[in-house]
Design a protein that fits this description.
2 strands; single chain; 131 residues; elongated; 8% strand; mainly alpha; two-stranded antiparallel ribbon
């Protein structure tokens, strides 16, 4: 198994842990951390897409049991493209709406806003990849 085949699982866990870390950071630091995590996940998803495009789809089994009793992630071209689209929309909306976020969200609540963004990304990626 190539190391790139672990990237969808790492993306979900990284976004999930990013939400936890953002909840304890200060406002601007949480924003920068969230944007860094989303950018890293975007790069990993693009690398996964290139791997899947060259080698074909695969199923990543988490744990010792298969799909009806355990969790499996299916990674194919369509799943990678959907994840890339979600991440591009998420990043562009964050970069484009940064001025509005600063006006609409209280400064003491920035970390909670970016916690929700990270958790939303994690849930969207889990929905896209789950078999």
């Amino acid at each position: 198994m190539a190391f790139v085949q672990n990237f969808p699982f790492f993306s979900i866990i990284l976004a999930l842990s990013g939400g936890v870390v953002c909840s304890i950071l200060k406002g601007k630091v949480a924003r920068n951390y969230c944007l860094t995590i989303l950018s890293l996940i975007f790069v990993m998803t693009c690398m996964t897409f290139m791997h899947v495009y060259q080698n074909g789809a695969y199923v990543y089994m988490m744990g010792h049991f298969s799909a009806p009793w355990g969790n499996e992630i299916r990674v194919g071209v369509l799943e990678c493209l959907m994840a890339i689209v979600f991440l591009v929309v998420m990043l562009l909306s964050l970069f484009g709406g940064m001025h509005h976020i600063e006006k609409d969200v209280e400064e003491s609540k920035y970390n909670l806003y970016f916690t929700m963004i990270s958790l939303l990304t994690s849930s969207l990626l889990a929905l896209v990849y789950t078999y």
